[in-house]
Write a structure and sequence with these properties.
Elements lengths: L28 E5 L6 E5 L3 H8 L4 E2 L1 E5 L6 E5 L2 E6 L2 E8 L3 H9 L1 E6 L5 H7 L16 E3 L5 E3 L4 E13 L2 E13 L6 E4 L2 E4 L4
Length: about 210
């Protein structure tokens, strides 16, 4: 799962993050101006471990980002998904460059974001690579169809959004993919699957 807190299923072997050689290296300290006094103070940079611990407290909807043609599909569990605009409807997803889906999204130019329901924790685990399953094998055992633009769509999800890739930006170990939403649907009768403090949460059961 590509999630900034670095905990839980996003630490699967399929999503192991290796910092590329060209990634910017942060200094141990940096100077910040005190707005009240105008003085410059040296403060330590945020450590990765501390950052991940903090981000574990940000609850996020659990999604599966998927792309590819039947027989050659790839997908991953992700919480790093956000709306960008409603005119036109657009969203972004952050995908690690080491994942199988990364290159395929750029190649296919279409992808889907499937918001999982509270009944689909097993799907989340599968696409997070917890069972060591990868590629097309992750799509077995659940119902998928081909969307209007050709992206894989998960039947039974809380909501689905099919996107056409419009832009992308590399940052460190990840790429931010921006997609214009061309189709979507939702099921109002089911509750969402959330990820919070390293565990799944069912809103309807709490």
């Amino acid at each position: 799962m590509t999630n900034p807190d670095g905990s839980g299923p996003e630490n699967s072997s399929d999503l192991t993050i290796n910092r590329p050689e060209h990634a910017p290296q942060l200094e141990e300290t940096r100077e910040i101006e005190n707005p009240k006094t105008g003085t410059m103070n040296k403060v330590p940079n945020m450590e990765s471990e501390r950052y991940r611990a903090i981000m574990r407290h940000q609850a996020g909807a659990v999604t599966v980002v998927a792309t590819g043609d039947p027989g050659a599909r790839a997908g991953l569990t992700a919480t790093a998904v956000a709306s960008v605009s409603d005119k036109p409807p657009a969203l972004l997803v952050c995908v690690g460059r080491e994942t199988q889906a990364h290159g395929l999204i750029g190649q296919m130019r279409v992808f889907s974001v499937n918001l999982l329901s509270s009944e689909q924790q097993a799907v989340a685990d599968l696409f997070a690579g917890r069972d060591g399953v990868s590629g097309e094998d992750r799509f077995r055992g659940s119902d998928w169809r081909v969307g209007a633009a050709g992206a894989p769509i998960l039947d039974g999800a809380l909501a689905t959004l099919e996107c056409r890739l419009t832009d992308q930006h590399a940052f460190s170990t990840h790429t931010i993919f921006i997609g214009q939403v061309i189709d979507g649907l939702f099921r109002a009768e089911v509750s969402p699957l959330l990820y919070f403090r390293g565990d799944y949460w069912d809103v309807g059961a709490r």
